[in-house]
Write a structure and sequence with these properties.
- This protein is α/β, with parallel strands linked by helices and 151 residues long.
- The protein folds into 2 domains: 59 residues, 2,3-Dihydroxybiphenyl 1,2-Dioxygenase, domain 1 (Roll); 81 residues, 2,3-Dihydroxybiphenyl 1,2-Dioxygenase, domain 1 (Roll), CATH 3.10.180.10.
- The protein starts with a strand and ends in a 9-residue tail after the last helix.
């Protein structure tokens, strides 16, 4: 079992990325930050390593995608309420991020996507605790609705 999660993401402007993530309320760990990378602290066990595209390329033989035009991954981050989802996306938009699509409200789950200035996709999600425990279909059936099909 992993003890920590480090998500490596490319950036074309490291200082802009650091300012964006700090505007969301995250901190930067200076011990793992230099001119090539910044360690964004989301929690005691979750970190974003925002790396210049050139530096990220030293860790793989694969092409680094242009995250403005291609999705390499979508990072979903659970929140404790719909209000927290809205607050974080609002802060992100104010800090130069984009909301690429409308909010998704499935009844049991509420989600909003936020792209950082480089196009990396963060999905902020709130799920009704009862739905998380029972599963969406059981929760929706108890509440007289049908859960939407999952992709």
């Amino acid at each position: 079992m992993p003890t920590n999660i480090f998500v490596n993401m490319p950036t074309t402007d490291l200082d802009r990325s650091k300012a964006f993530y700090e505007a969301l309320g995250y901190s930067i760990n200076p011990m793992f930050t230099d001119e090539n990378a910044a360690c964004v602290v989301l929690s005691d066990t979750i970190y974003f390593m925002v790396l210049t595209r050139e530096y990220l390329a030293t860790f793989t033989d694969k092409q680094i995608v242009d995250t403005k035009t291609h999705a390499g991954a979508m990072i979903a981050l659970g929140q404790d309420s719909r209000d927290e989802v809205d607050e974080l996306v609002g802060k992100g938009i104010e800090a130069g991020g984009l909301e690429p699509r409308p909010a998704q409200d499935y009844g049991f789950m509420y989600s909003r996507d936020l792209e950082d200035p480089d196009g990396n996709i963060l999905s902020y999600v709130y799920m009704v605790p009862e739905a998380a425990e029972k599963g969406p279909e059981a929760y929706m059936a108890e509440h007289g609705a049908e859960a939407p099909a999952q992709a």
